[in-house]
Design goal:
Largest sheet: 5 strands, antiparallel
Strand content: 25-35%
Structural class: alpha+beta
Strand order of the largest sheet: 8-7-9-14-15
CATH class: Alpha Beta
Number of domains: 1
Helix content: 25-40%
CATH architecture: Alpha-Beta Complex
Number of helices: 4
Shape: globular
CATH superfamily: Creatinase/methionine aminopeptidase superfamily
Distance between the termini: 33 Å
Length: 252
């Protein structure tokens, strides 16, 4: 069941979202060759707790980290480890959530490590822009539906030769990390659940350089592209209001 949020609840989610976004900024400052994903995770944990918030991911479904940190062909849900060391040319996806006063933010970014290829940079930029195409679809479509989000993402990235992951999708977000409705990054415009003011959604394009197909790693968490090509991830939590879309996890 979809939980519409009150203006007061959205204000709380703004704070949760700000803390989440700032935790990603802390992570970004650490990204360089030789740093381990566990070191980044520990700094994220420290920052969120410093803000009197709780790392949403830690222990969620048994997940052992405060952030999902995924490298290169790993799409999502990478487990932080002292054995995973960033190298020049890598792209690293960091997905973070912070719970504050009973509501959570959820956000992800893909960062370059040192000098990356032009192909990798283009993939990161297309993935980011596809999120904003989805927001535009909500704001510019009369009576928008969930299918408008997926269509906007899919059409934008496929026009550039990329593919969108099908097995994992965006979702509602609020008092719980995952709420109704599911928000696929593919679909047909004008189809699906109507989008109303008060809905809070995590829109998160997961875009692959090659095939859309993925496989699960043996640790039961990490998901990688089947062809070993790069994947990028960009996510924000948003609130739909009578005056448009508020990006809850974006800092100026």
């Amino acid at each position: 069941m979809i939980q519409l949020k009150t203006p007061e609840q959205i204000e709380i989610m703004k704070t949760a979202g700000r803390i989440t976004a700032e935790a990603l900024l802390v992570a970004e400052e650490m990204i360089r060759e030789g740093v381990t994903t566990k070191e980044i995770d520990e700094k994220i944990n420290q920052y969120i707790r410093k803000c009197k918030a709780k790392p949403t991911f830690l222990g969620y479904g048994g997940f052992p980290g405060s952030a999902c940190i995924s490298i290169n062909d790993e799409v999502i849900h990478g487990i932080p480890s002292h054995k995973r060391v960033l190298k020049n040319g890598d792209i690293v996806k960091i997905d973070v959530g912070a719970m504050w006063h009973g509501f959570t933010g959820d956000s992800a970014r893909t960062f370059p490590v040192g000098e990356i290829s032009e192909e990798a940079r283009n993939l990161i930029e297309a993935t980011k822009q596809s999120f904003f195409e989805a927001v535009k679809a909500i704001e510019e479509t009369e009576h928008p539906r969930i299918g408008d989000i997926g269509h906007a993402v899919q059409s934008y990235v496929e026009a550039r030769g990329y593919s969108v992951v099908r097995e994992f999708v965006g979702h509602g977000v609020g008092a719980n990390l995952h709420e109704d409705p599911n928000v696929p990054n593919f679909g047909t415009a004008g189809r699906g659940v109507r989008i109303y003011p008060g809905m809070t959604l995590a829109i998160e394009p997961m875009v692959n350089q090659g095939t859309e197909k993925v496989r699960m790693l043996g640790d039961g968490w990490g998901v990688v592209t089947q062809d070993g090509k790069l994947s990028a991830h960009y996510e924000n939590s948003i609130a739909v209001t009578d005056n448009g879309v508020i990006i809850l996890t974006k800092v100026d």
